[in-house]
Amino acid sequence: xDRAAVRIGRSxxxxxxxxxxxxxxxxVAKAAVAAGQLDLGESRAQELIAKRQALGPGVRWHFIGRLxxxxxxxVVGGVSLIHSVDRLxxxxxxxxxxxxxxxxxxxxxxxxxxxxxxxxxxxxEAARGLVAAVRSLPGIACEGLMTVPPMRTDPRxxxxxxxxxxxxxxxxxxxxQHLSMGMSGDVQVAVEEGAxxxxxxxxxxxxxxxxx
Length: 212
What we know:
Helix content is 37%, strand content 18%.
C-alpha cells in the first residue's frame, strides 16, 4: 500500500486499511487489534455481532457486505461505517434505526462501477440521485462511494470510473470524499487510482480456513 501511494505521489497516510475478519475467528481479530489494527470489517450481521461482543470497545467496525433491511437493526449503532448502501429503501431503514439510537450513521453508497450483474451496487447513472436522496435523510451521512470490480478482469478502469464519479459528485456534495475500493488481489491498483479505504482479508490474515 505504501509503495503504491508513494509511486504516484500520494501520502501513505491518505489510505486507511480495513482488515476484513470475515471467516476468521475472534482470536484472530483480537490479535489484529493487539497489533494496532483498530479498523475491522465484516460482511455478515451475525458474525459482526459475535465478534463485536467478543472484542469489546475500542474497535472501529465496518460493515462491507450486502445488507438486508431486516438486519439493519443489528448493524446500526455498532459500526463506524457502512460501505454498502445500494438503494434508497435500505438508506431509509438505516436512517430510521440511527435516529432511534440518537446518532448519525456514516455510510458509503455502493456503485456497480464494473456493470457486473453478479455484484451489488447501484448503476453508475443512478449514483447521483441516490447520493442526493441519502444526504437528504436525517440520521445518515453519505461520505463517499464503494465498489467491487468484476472477477478476472482488469480492475483499473473500474476504479478510475469510481474516482471520476466521486470527483464529479464532490462539486455538489463536498462531503462525498471516500473511495472504498481495493481488496487483497488488487490493492496496489486501487491505491494508484485514488482509494482512501482498502478492504484486505487474506493479505492480512492468510488464506481463509487456515486461520494463518
